[in-house]
Amino acid sequence: MDGLLLCARYAFAPNKLKYCGPDKNLELFQYCAENQKDLGLSQLLKEFEVLYPYLKLIARANNLADPFDLRVVEAYWLGNELLENVWARDLYDHLLEKQQLKRKINKKSLELILGKIPAGAKVHHSFHVFNVFKRTGHAPVVHTLESMDNCRISWGKVKQVNGQTMKVLSQSIILKAGKLVLGERVEKEINFGLDGRKIAQKPKIGDWVSFHWNWFCQKLDERQVKNLECYTRQSLFLANQTL
User: Fold this and answer.
1) Angle subtended by helix axes 51-61 and 70-77, to nearest 10
2) With CB atoms counted within 10 Å of each terminal CB, which end of the chain scores lower, N or C?
């Protein structure tokens, strides 16, 4: 899998919902469905004001020239060893300057977020979702439990495939004793096609897959499942320090 195309799959669903990125969802879908890339796709993804600066931060910390390097894309969306090389000070500066949180959220919330950096915050998508409670894309509203669960990258095992949807067993984020936790596995319906065209190769029963806003992103191997769960739980732990 190419890093640029993989990133496009993860970015597709929130862009379709007009939560982030440029108003070019049809173009983004076509790139994914045709499994083709060019400079136009790179430019399109660079317009995601939250996503792209994070990719650049990870790439720079690991001396990688391309923010769309497959290893960088995987690090941000799923998690891998590259996240361990991002210095806490760089993340601090990134949140203040590149993500402009000082302008987007109130002072008290900002202090809470920045205080989690020395506690072990990583440059993982789930950290931003669970710990920056106010969405910072096109819809600057406070996350609900449902939107938080949909916005993070989920994983599940495919139980059934029907046309352009599949059913997977996956854990949702729930509130338990006032804490955000992963609940019991439940069945969810996930999309992987639109108007007869598939965003990615059809998954098989028994596959582990990732999904974003109920859209299939990729098939996962055992290492990727473990990494995604590990960094998700770490971000949940930090989120619960203020609940």
Assistant:
1) 120
2) C
Alpha-carbon distance 58 to 44, whole Å? Answer: 19
- Residue 204 belongs to domain with CATH number: 2.30.30.140
How many domains are there within the chain? 2
Residue 220 lies inside a defined structural domain of this protein: yes
pLDDT digits (tens, 9 = 90+) for 160-208: 999 899 999 999 999 999 999 999 999 999 999 888 888 888 899 999 9
pTM over 0.90: yes
pLDDT digits (tens, 9 = 90+) for 71-112: 999 999 999 999 999 999 999 999 988 888 887 888 888 888
Residue reference for tokens 């096609």: 193
Pairing of strands 154-162, 208-212: antiparallel
